[in-house]
Amino acid sequence: MNLKQKLLTGFFSIIALLMIISGITYVQFNAVNDQYSSTITDRTNKIQLTSYTLFETYQEERDLQAYLTTGDVEKLDAYYLNRDEFKENIGNLAAHSNSKEANGLIDQLVATEERFAEMAEEAITYKQSENVEGYTDLMNTRGDEISAELENIGKELLFYQQDAFAATSQQLSQQTNNTIRVIVILSLVAIATGIAVALGISNKISKRAKIVTEVAEEIANGNLAIDEINVKGKDEISHLALAVNKMLNNLHDMIEKVSQTSEQVASSSQELLAIAEETTAATNQVADSISNVAESIEVQSRNTNESAHGANEIATGILQITGNTSTVAQTTIETIRQAAKGNQNVQEVIRQMNTISQANEETNQVIQALEKRSIEIGKIISVITDISDQTNLLALNAAIESARAGEQGKGFAVVADEVRKLAEQSRESANQIAKLIQHIQTDTSKAVEMMHHGNDEIVQGMTIAEETGKSFERIVQSIESTTIQTQELSAASEQISASVQQVNASIEEVAAAAKTSSATTGEIAAATEEQLASTEEVSSSATFLAQLAEELTGLVSKFSV
């Protein structure tokens, strides 16, 4: 996996965790909201139906009492209408009730209402027969008893519905708190994971880049005795480390060869200088012996033979120097090519670093978009808080209106109080959600800061890679300088070889002249002078070769192998 893939994997892991947390938050709060809405609606309807049922029993008793007192037929019709509404409400309440205790109370209320209806029919019969004493006694005895029983059973059912409503509200509140705790724990896990991933990737890249930079600086300073980089992985840093190791080995081999060649050149130049001095001495001896050519012809012949032998040795040394300088030239050319290849690898790393920096910037934009979504969720929570405040006000108004209604409004007052409590709980939950959104926004900002930190590490890696590229350029320049001096050494060797050939030719001419005639002293003198000049030229060339060898040795000494 290359650097870009590693960084993208780390950043996308953080983004995925944040998206998962956001999704869980959305799903959990939607579920709580749906359950909250359905529960509130169900419990409120049951409390309303119970209150309506109690109200209908009260209306039945009031309309029946009014009919018996005034004989108004409309009151009797109202009584029967209230009975029908009672049956409809109690039927709806029974259909939506799934509690055994509530169903038992509903059955008792229905049975008691039927007893009241039977008593009412009997009282209506007394009224229609104008038996005032009969329906009066009936209402004062059985009527009051059944009415009190109806009221007690109705209140017990209403209190049960109110208690169930409070228990359900507490259960929903506990579920909301559990959801908030789960989301907080998941957020903390995501934050810890994101920080660990960011630190792990940045430390790994920085540490490995630092090792490569230290080795490159040692090479640039001429230290080739260092150990190779331990390469692990197949990313761009590993490729760069492999290139640096290869360059280190090539430079080490090249410097050793150049060192050996410079030593050979120095040795050969010293031998050449000694031979040139011997040749000069022999030539001077020949010049001194010209006055007595006849007597020293044999000595001259012997000296010329020695000079020829020395010239041959010089020629052999020059050929060896020429071969060695050619080897050095080829080695330096290969080293320049390897160094140029290493520089290309460094440039490729810089391009990859730029690509990673762009990917990091895109990830930063995604997290900023997530931060904007968190702000939008905060606005929605604000709207929910406003709705809770309005619900609280409506519940307060309902409580005031219920208080004005007196005894008949007590049920609605209880409902209004429960609605007010639920509105306050909704507001508290909304505030908790708002705090959670603030934590998420804070964590998102931290993630952005960590990405900026990772981008700084990438910029530092690019700077290090650029410095490594400059080190490669300095190495190439040093090698090119060595190549130029090697070429100068080769040219000097060729010049010396030409001079040696001239000396050898002169020696051969002197030997031929010595063998053919001892009378040609003038020619021998001229040849001797020419030989002396050539020998001095050889000596000068040998001195120049020795100087080049010393300069080459000085260049090589800059590198420690």
The radius of gyration is 56 Å
**CATH class category label:** Mainly Alpha
CATH superfamily: Methyl-accepting chemotaxis protein
Compute the average pLDDT: 78
Q: How would you spell out the order of helices and strands?
A: HHHHHHHH
Number of domains: 1
Q: Helix/strand/pairing class, anyone? A: mainly alpha
Distance between the termini: 35 Å
- Tell me the CATH architecture: Orthogonal Bundle
What characterizes the major β-sheet?
A: none
Outline, from the CA principal axes? rod-shaped
Which regions have little confidence, pLDDT < 50, spanning 5+ residues? none
> According to CATH, what is the topology?
Helix Hairpins
Kindly state the percentage of residues in helix.
Answer: over 70%
What does this protein look like?
The protein has 561 residues and is mainly α. The chain has one domain (1-34, 173-561): Methyl-accepting chemotaxis protein (Helix Hairpins, Orthogonal Bundle), CATH 1.10.287.950. It is built from 8 helices and no strands. It has helices at residues 3-70, 73-96, 100-128, 132-220, 236-288, 293-405, 410-516, 521-557. Helix 4 (132-220) runs parallel beside helix 7. The longest helix has 113 residues, at 293-405. The mean pLDDT is 78. Residues 203-256 form the HAMP domain. Keywords: Membrane, Transducer, Transmembrane, Transmembrane helix.
Write a compact overview of the structure shown.
One of its GO terms (molecular function) is transmembrane signaling receptor activity. The chain is mostly helical. It has helices spanning about 5-70, 75-95, 100-130, 130-220, 235-290, 295-405, 410-515, 520-555.
